[in-house]
Amino acid sequence: MTRVCSVWAACIAVAAAQSACVRAKTTSAPAPAPAIALPVASPAAPPALVDSSRAVVVIQADGADVDWSAPWGSGKPWTRTLTGLAIEGRRILVSGWGLRNHRHVEVQKPGAIARVPARVLLFDVDAGLAMLVVDDPGFWDGVELASLSPALPAPRPVKLWHAAAEGMRLESSEGVVSRFEVSGRCDFVHMKISQVDAQRVGVSDVVSVDGRVAGLVMSWSNGEVYAIGSRTLADFATDVSHPPYRGCATADFMGQKLSNPALRASLGLGPDDGGWLVSEVSPLGSSSGSLETGDVILSVGGTKIDSDGTYADPGAGRLSYASLFSQGHHPGDAIAVELVRHGERQRASVVLKRWPGEQTLVPWFGPDPPGYTVRGGLVFQRLSHEYLLTFGKDWENKAPSRILEPYELERWSSSSERPGVIVLSGVLPVAATLGYEHIGSLVVDRVNGQPARSLDDVRAAFARPTGGFHVVTFLPGQGVARIVLDAKETKDADASIREKYHVEEEGVGPATPH
Amino acid sequence: MVRPDSRGLATTGRGLFPWWLAGLAWIAVLLSAGRAIALDPPDQDVRSAVLRVEVSRAGHDWTAPWKLLPPESASGTGFLIDGDRLLTNAHVVRDAQQVTVKKNDGSAPAIATVEAVDDDCDLALLRVANRSFLRGLRPLRVGDLPQIGSSVVTYGYPLGGLELSTTAGVVSRIEQRAYLEGLSKHLVVQTDAALNPGNSGGPVVQRGLVVGVAFQVITGAQSIGFFIPAPIVRHFLDDFTDGHYTGFPDLPVRVLPLSSPAYRRERKLPDDRSGVVVQEIAAGSDLGAAIEPGDVLMAVDGQRVADDGTCQIGAARAPFFHLVDMKSLGQRVRFDVWRAGRPLNVEWRASQFPPWNRLRQSRSKPRYFVYAGLLFVPATIEYFSAMHPVGARRAAILHDLAFRSWEPPPAIDREAVLLAHIFSNPANAGVDLSVPFVVERVNGQPVRNLADLARLLEESHQKQDVFELGPFHHIEAVDHEQALSARASILATYGIGNDKSL
Predict the structure, then answer these.
(1) Do residues B87 and B123 touch, judged by C-beta distance below 8 A?
(2) What is d(CA B39, CA B25) in angstroms, rounded to the nearest whole number?
(3) Which of B409, B478, B472 lies closest to B442 in space, CA to CA?
(4) A375 has which bridge partners?
(5) Chain-chain contact of B4 with A254 (C-beta, under 8 angstroms)
(6) Which of A161, A194, A436, B60 lies 20 to 30 Å from A82 when distance is taken between CA atoms?
(7) Do A263 and B464 touch (CB under 8 A)?
């Protein structure tokens, strides 16, 4: 049982699900948020959809993932069949990460042969939500547009609509909503659906109750499906329709329970105050500047937080405080927080920011288009979670500890002095790299005396050799601390690298169309 | 692109992170019957000096450090040397609660005691209390490093039978390799003579002299067995002659072979010179006063170091580390280095690097401290291997084990202390976390090591003792008075004999 709960921990877990879906289409699930009782009440009845199956469309996507161990080439091409939901404005909602690295997308009506091209209007990798547009008016004949209803009550049976047989057949299966949890990069409330036939579930399958759309499938594992609720989907659709797109936002701090009476006493808290202790505030996130390590959060947006970090949600039961920041809010919104700091009650306002994924020290996704720099056969890349996956299934044990360390301990932080981690991922053997054929997977410290914290740093430093040499130094403890290349040989190597290995000096691979 | 193992390049005497954590498929062996190549016919004197060693072992439970694991039996081989002593492998007698030795003449076994043991070189000396037991046996004499390609015969008690078994083979290679029982690399000799479980500790003989002690194999490979060569055996025996064992020196440095012409030019090293480039020196090591990162290490005690880091050792080539390995503590080592474009002679007295000694826990009893039902242990490789922490916890502990010695500030007496378990008790009610955590501060004071933590808590005058835990600033607290009054009941409830072993 996870006893320490945090927003970030939840985010990490869903991130694992993301990668599973993107990479191998295997299943995985978010880690459970703190235990939540079953929901108690139902909100007002939503507008009914006569038959939600008529709003279900089939998406055929082609793409190619990046091979981060050789980022200059395109990875293995793939074709995926996803399910989507037709909504107002001739748009189609898609959940999950199935469209990551897509190149071309088409849609069809279930059972129909004809496919028409679709444009990806927006793909929010943090939210795991995408919006497609189909311009061909003919496609929309006979398609019902789904109305997105507010959250639905649980526990109760739901139907899952799945595009089977490469879209030629629409299948439905049943499940039961067992509880709600807050998880994912965006701290969205997810429905957990149990008793599902795992053979008949796919990414972005449509979840319906009594003919009304209740949500879309994000991920699944061991017969349990995590689905994003229609309230969140409706909010996303509205956001997309009113540009500029604002996206989701979270509080971006980690914290811990305050159920230990001795700890409460040491912090001067009464037994009934509740509260959630702030352990780390991401310097890049929403709470930076307004919350501090050691703050005890008593309420968020006027809702009292109990000492286990939850509050009673009228529709979903006990939910993590994190959803009070995220749910229904967007970057720019100010959330009032009541807290105890240094023994004194205070009020603070957290102005939500969009999570700057690419600016974090170790981003989840590698750069798009895939970035790398080759100089004289040395291949430099920015450390990302996607790069770590190149160490294989057991990457958490296989990747060198020095490379894992910034990911495990510092990935949410970043600063202008240290915007990223640069790795010498390997060496393409040429004359200039003679003697270095066997090194690689090393965290770079400096190039020619200049700190190497981005690929731009590397490129700039290689433009300024010292005394006819290029000197690359590495962080301590990796065995190799410093290597030297001849500046002229390095320059001459570029042509032969192009010829021998078909590698350009800079990563300018195909970008995912957005 | 091939993903190379960067450690392959940088050799080190000790302190390289343990290979078994890297998942290498290695096991320590105990030997078996092989092909009968009658090159060096077994001599009856040799045969009778080789004994079967049987051990009842009960190791420490590193997850419950006051306890021993249930006893199990193991067997290996030992042989008689001068001074009525038997030589065997350290891993044969690891955690031994009782050792018996049995001759191959059908006589009853005798009880032996472990007189000296060094996990680092995987050797141990046994003594038999009953002097008459060994009467009539001729002790074996230790010879020299054998020639590559020369024939050797092994003697031992591998699985598959109870009688003494001999196998023969040739010396395939001589190089430095990880000794699995310790944390170090030393010289090893590879042979194709069949070595199997039970052979461990058995003599490898050439022309009547012991040229090595069989000790480990590569599993999954064919006919790749290793023995501890005579020079390492002699170092172990010589060290013990004054009755006080000190061990091998550490050379806490990492080097890169000088195979890059550009690096050579940048160092302005003339073509007629050779050596390796010093990459890292452990922080706080006295070696730092003699050599510096960037130095080209050209010779050790006048022995030329080749560009790949090897020296001529007899007829074989082996990494220069071996020359330092052969020193006793305190002995002078002379390095010829190339620094700032000119040659330089520097000297260093062979020594051990204290933080690495601290990591070699297996020879001593596990240390721990129990307070308010919270179990604290130092971060050790044994704990790490037993618990397999993951994610950020793994990274935080590994940093201490793998990197701290290579980066400033020096951490000579600093060790990471872990909150490793919580024994439920009213004194820690509400302490609600999944272990392990690194204990960073207690009552605001930084924790330098386990003894330091125990002192901070025992001398505390706080109403609540507050623990700052990492990674990520987790805080817990216990009531001090309650912690003290609950001590006896916690120890009794959980069967812990003592609240500490520091």
Answers:
(1) yes
(2) 32
(3) B478
(4) A378
(5) no
(6) A194
(7) yes
Q: Is B454 exposed, middle or buried (0-12, 13-18, 19+ CB in 10 A)?
A: buried
Q: What is the CATH number of the domain that holds A319?
A: 2.30.42.10
Among the partner-chain residues B256, B398, B430, the one whose CB lies closest to the CB of A263 is B430
Please indicate if any CB of chain A lies within 8 Å of the CB of B474.
yes
> B24 and B164: one domain?
yes
How many beta carbons lie within 10 A of that of residue A7, not counting itself?
A: 28
State whether residue B431 sits within 8 Å of chain A by CB: yes
- Report the pLDDT value the prediction gives residue A151, as an integer from 0 to 100: 59
Q: What is the pLDDT of residue B485?
A: 95
Last residue of a domain, one of B349, B380, B395: B349
A371: left (phi > 0), else alpha (psi -120 to 50), else beta? Answer: beta
Residues in chain A with CB shorter than 8 Å from the CB of B10 are 479-480
How far off is chain A from B197, nearest CA to CA, in Å? 29
Q: What is the CATH number of the domain that holds A467?
A: 3.20.190.20
- The angle at the Cα of A247, spanning A244 to A253, to the nearest 5 degrees, equals 140
* Facing residue for A260 by CB, picked from B266, B395, B477: B477
Tell me how many domains chain A contains.
3
Q: How many CB pairs under 8 A join A and B?
A: 180
Looking up residue A118, the CATH number of its domain turns out to be 2.40.10.120
Which residue has 């490379």 as its token pair? A403
Distance in angstroms (rounded) separating the CA atoms of residues B328 and B383: 31
DSSP assignment letter at B485 = H
Residue A32: predicted pLDDT: 35
Residues of A in contact with B282 (CB under 8 A): none
Confidence of residue A48 (pLDDT cuts 50, 70, 90): very low
Residue B18: pLDDT band (50, 70, 90) is very low
Q: Chain B interface, mutation test: which of A6, A67, A266, most B Cβ atoms within 10 Å?
A: A266
The neighbour count for residue A118, using CB atoms within 10 Å, is 25
> Before B409, cis peptide (omega within 30)?
yes
Which of B277, B432, B482 is facing A260, going by the closest CB pair? Answer: B432
Residue B258 confidence (pLDDT): 94
Question: Does residue B34 sit in the same domain as residue B150?
Answer: yes
Domain enclosing residue A306, as ranges:
253-351
Q: Which two tokens mark A415?
A: 């600063």
Q: Say whether the peptide bond before residue A406 is cis (omega within 30 degrees of 0).
A: no
- Same structural domain, B111 and B214: yes
pLDDT of amino acid B39: 41
B275 by DSSP, 3-state: which? coil
- Substitution target from A281, A436, A445 for chain B, most B beta carbons within 10 A: A436
Looking at the structure, tell me whether residues A338 and A389 fall in a common domain: no
pLDDT band at B127 (very low <50, low <70, confident <90, very high): very high
pLDDT digits (tens, 9 = 90+) for A146-175: 877 665 556 678 889 888 877 788 888 899
Contact between chains at A265 and B258 (C-beta distance less than 8 A): no
B4 assigned to some structural domain: no
Report d(CA B274, CA B133) in Å as an integer. Answer: 55
* Residue environment code for B384-417, b if the CB has 16+ CB neighbours within 10 A, otherwise e: beebebeebbbbbbbbbbbbbbbeeebbeebbbb
Residues B18 and B138 grouped into a single domain: yes
**DSSP E strand stretches across A203-281:** 206-209, 212-221, 224-229, 253-256, 276-281
pLDDT band at B363; cut points 50, 70, 90: low
Is the CB of B6 less than 8 angstroms away from the CB of A442?
Answer: yes
Write out the residue range of the structural domain in which residue B343 sits. Answer: 253-349
B293, B390, B475 ranked by CB distance to A481: nearest = B293
Q: Please report where in the chains the tokens 């609950």 appear, as a residue.
A: B486
Distance, CA of B85 to CA of B493 (rounded, Å): 45
Claim to verify: residue B63 and residue B193 sit in the same structural domain: yes
